[in-house]
Amino acid sequence: MKPIAVVVEHDGKRILPVTHELIHLATLLANGIHAPIVLVIPGTDQPDMAAELARLGMRTICLAITGIDGYNSGAYKTALAELFATLSPSHILVAHTATGRDFAPGLAVRLNGTAIAGVNNLLWEDGVPLFSRPIFNGAKNALIQANKTPCIAMVQPSAFLSPEVPASAPLPGPIETMEIKFSDPGIKRLGTRSADKRGDDLERATVIVSAGRGLGSRENLGAVEGFAALFPNAAMGVSRPLVDDGWMPYRFQVGITGARVSPEVYIACGISGSSQHLAGIMGSKTIVSINSDPNAAIFNHSDYCIVADILTFISAFEAIAASVNDPDR
């Protein structure tokens, strides 16, 4: 039986939370096709991480890549392709993160397999697994059946959160080490520099007001900023398109490639609801969405849905707030 392989996402020192989501999906998939699961940790120093994962009772392979210092796309593709050529998995689960998106498509080419990006759900049809991924800027989801193996599924973070903490198995799984030399990286790693993020404001805020393309123009950002100022302990954020268009710096970006937030209240102003943005806000206690499009995808994930023009709504809200706070009233 061909195994299901999970490529462990880590930062060189610790296993990142998305790995446990990949393992949860692997378990769902394994239950349907009756296949074993293999955890693969690529990198240079994995013993502690391997011991942590082995407690789940699954086979764990430390893929030790010599000749690199930290993550290297070419090294990952070369080493993983060599391992999987021997392992012959039916499915390879990778996180849809900056790292996963960097090496997974090229790995699929080397293995002559299939790559499915942005996977957010798993469904079944006649015993065949179908992977759901967003299309039309997140307004719809397409069901994809892999036409070749191995199928490399790039899984959206937060799409497969496990309701329970994985329990330790009665016996730890076996740990194996495979060493692969990589002598021609092509890219020289000079170091790591933290991004200029406004993480503190977004992480500490109890209310976050975010703007999207539905705002219309850059000049209207001031209205959203003023709207956010009406709430105590609030911060302003934006969706990725506004950062890409140069409207706001990256430190304001909310979503899978920006800040993943969990405020008491998240207010989305003119945000359509792409899966990348949703993955970054699903920890919010309450989601309020304001959009002029009654079919906006974000409404399917909101607690309160307001169909209105953003600027008209903000103006009306500010008028009510002013009257409530008027001492002469």
Question: Mind explaining what this structure looks like?
Answer:
FAD binds at residues 213, 239-240, 253-257, 270-277, 291, 309-310. Strand 11, helix 6 (221-228) and strand 12 form a beta-alpha-beta unit. This protein has helices at residues 18-33, 47-54, 73-87, 98-111, 199-204, 221-228, 240-244, 275-281, 310-324; strands at residues 4-7, 37-43, 59-66, 91-95, 114-119, 121-125, 128-135, 140-144, 151-155, 175-181, 207-211, 234-238, 265-269, 286-291, 304-307. The mean pLDDT is 88. It has a seven-stranded parallel sheet with strand order 5-9-4-1-2-3-10, sandwiched between helices. The chain starts with a strand and ends in a 5-residue tail after the last helix. The chain is elongated. It has nine helices and 15 strands. It has two domains: 4-181, Rossmann fold (3-Layer(aba) Sandwich), CATH 3.40.50; 199-324, Rossmann fold. It has 329 residues and is an alpha/beta fold.
